TrEMBL record:
Keywords: Disulfide bond, Protease inhibitor, Secreted, Signal, Thiol protease inhibitor. PANTHER family: CYSTATIN-12, CYSTATIN-12-RELATED. One of its GO terms (molecular function) is cysteine-type endopeptidase inhibitor activity. This is Probable cystatin-16. Belongs to the cystatin family. Residues 20-128 form the Cystatin domain. It comes from Trichechus manatus latirostris (Florida manatee). The gene is LOC101345968. InterPro entries: Cystatin_dom, Cystatin_sf, Cystatin_spermatogenesis. Residues 1-20 form the signal peptide. The keyword Glycoprotein does not apply. It is found in: Secreted.
């Protein structure tokens, strides 16, 4: 009886370990197409949700990860405030503000991508001014 309980307990622990490995985040290339699209979506969503009238653009990707067996991406981004309004066309080529209007923000985003439908959902975001 003790052997059966020990074996059962061992299997439960092993299954828990295997299950947690499958759902952890792993580092990925910053150049993977769906990750790049997820970054663009996160920056767009930040600009849409932000009350600031000026647009922010991507300065640096600090972390690029994907949850195993999913299309959920975790990213840490640095963004800078531009001189362009947030609904202008070419924000990527817009210069950053200098002087009193200069502002940078660091954000962590969790984005769920559905590649077949090219649909993205922002699951979570946390931002702090730098």
């Amino acid at each position: 009886m003790l052997q059966q309980v020990t074996l059962l307990l061992g299997l439960v622990v092993l299954r828990t370990q295997v299950w947690s490995i499958h759902y952890e985040f792993v580092d990925i290339s910053k150049n993977l197409s769906y990750f790049v699209m997820s970054v663009e979506f996160a920056v767009f969503q930040y600009n849409e949700d932000n009350v600031d009238e000026y647009a922010y653009k991507l300065l640096r990707i600090r972390r690029s990860q994907r949850k195993r067996l999913t299309w959920i991406y975790l990213m840490d981004l640095e963004m800078g405030r531009t001189v362009c309004k947030k609904h202008e066309e070419d924000i990527e080529n817009c210069p950053l503000q200098k002087g009193p209007g200069e502002k940078q923000v660091r954000c962590s985003f969790l984005v769920d991508a559905l590649p077949i439908y090219t649909k993205f959902t922002l699951l979570n975001s946390t931002c702090v001014d730098e």
